[in-house]
Amino acid sequence: MESNLMTLLTFSIYGIMISMTYTKYFLITIPNERNEIHMNLSDLARNSYMLRGSFARRGYMRWWHSFVGVNVETGKPRTFFVEFFMINPNLGSNHPILGQHPYYKKRGMSPSYVMVKAGAFPDENDENGKQLHAFYPISSLQITGNPLVMRMNIPSPETSPLSMDHTQENTCFYSEDRLTGSIVISPQKARHRSLMTDFGSMEWELEVCKAVSCHTGLLGGRLFQMLHILDNYWHGEGIRSFFRGSVILDGDVYEVTPEHSYGYADKHWGRNFHNPWFQFSCGNLTSQRTGKELRHSVLAINSFYPRLLCFPLRRRFMLQMTYMGEDFEFTNCKWEVKETDRRFIWHILARNKNSVLKLSGSCKKEDMLHLRYEAPDGQLCRLPLWAGADGIGTLQLYRKGTGGRELLDTLKLENAMCIYRKEETTENA
After folding, report:
1. Residue 214, Cβ neighbours under 10 Å: how many?
2. Distance from C-alpha of 171 to C-alpha of 152, rounded to nearest angstrom
3. Separation between Cα atoms, residue 98 and residue 96, nearest integer Å
4. Which end of the chain has fewer CB within 10 Å, C or N?
5. Torsion, Cα of 43, 119, 269, 352 (10° steps)
């Protein structure tokens, strides 16, 4: 008996050592050796529906879009967002299961629904931020594979067991080049905490052209998902996007034009949210060398947190800088964040074998709102998820050479999107 236990223990130790070796190889060696291989690669298959297996029973998927529109009467800009969010689809039925509602909490039911989140960020004109949530049952979703098309149809009110109908009365549509929909939330409905929504109305009719993408390679591939090496995954299909169309927010009409939309689109999916959570992106870049705005340049940063079995490993970043048609990719990044009473400040130093990038950015808290989600296990994070679209910063890009580093350009960043939540621990939970 003891001999069998020792044999099993020996094989377990060897298995852990092999897993550690391969995890280190995939997470460190391969990304650093691929610096000259473009992450700027469109992959509509990876941007499609991927919640299968255990992810379908405990998992989420979110397609995010943000863009700038101009008020047709005042001429003032405003940054909007439209997101399609899906959670635990295999647990769904013909009504949305809201994890924060007492009816479902009492029965120990995990959330399962499709949510369309739409709204606007606070801005320098003292306009308050707003996020509106429309919930649909999984059964109302019509979806295709590749390329992805989603349509949320209007469900029958009689299908809900609740005295208050939480479902939305309008159809929303998503495709790779078109977004349409509307949400109307009354003050009475917004008082229900389980909806996690503000009140108001928003209608959108948009065309999308996704010009620059960020492909995460092996880090978002099937092998990593099968082994659950990451809790969440990222694919940037459209980190530089051009939007055209219109938005009506609480009766105010906004025009969205490609040249001033500064659009961004990406997708996240996995078993749980980032902890901590950090995203930073900017498509409004001005060159100090030429004094001109760079139309087809963009910066995108996303954090990810690998693990071995149940043990978390050191957090890492994926950073893509597309500058004047040339792509620079980094996974070797150092960062620090400082929080004051009025703003968040980030400093990032990124290196690969050919280049160096230095970034200093900040975002005022008064220009941010708290995005609200519930996790696949039905829990709400106690720490706020700060999000804003009026970040500023300075970026220096260097190329390495035999004679040292050569400064390619210094860029001024405006209208940067910042999403941040510090790490949740047992002390601050």
Report:
1. 27
2. 5
3. 6
4. N
5. 60
Q: Tokens representing 268?
A: 């996240």
Is residue 21 left, alpha or beta, with left meaning phi > 0 and alpha meaning psi from -120 to 50?
A: alpha
Nearest alpha-carbon partner for 361 in 419, 266, 263, 280? 280
Residue closest to 304 by CA, chosen among 319, 325, 283, 289:
319
- 291 — alpha (psi -120 to 50), left (phi > 0) or beta? left
Q: Tell me the one-letter amino acid at 190.
A: A
Contact 257, 236 (CB under 8 A): no
List pLDDT tens digits, range 107-153.
999 999 999 999 999 977 667 899 999 999 999 999 998 899 999 87
Q: How far is CA 359 from CA 181, 303, 390, 398, 413, in A?
A: 37, 15, 16, 12, 10
For residue 25, pLDDT over 70 is answered with no
Scored b (16 or more CB within 10 A) or e, 12-32 reads eeeeeeeeeeebeebbbeebe
Is 127:78 a contact under the CB 8 Å cutoff?
yes
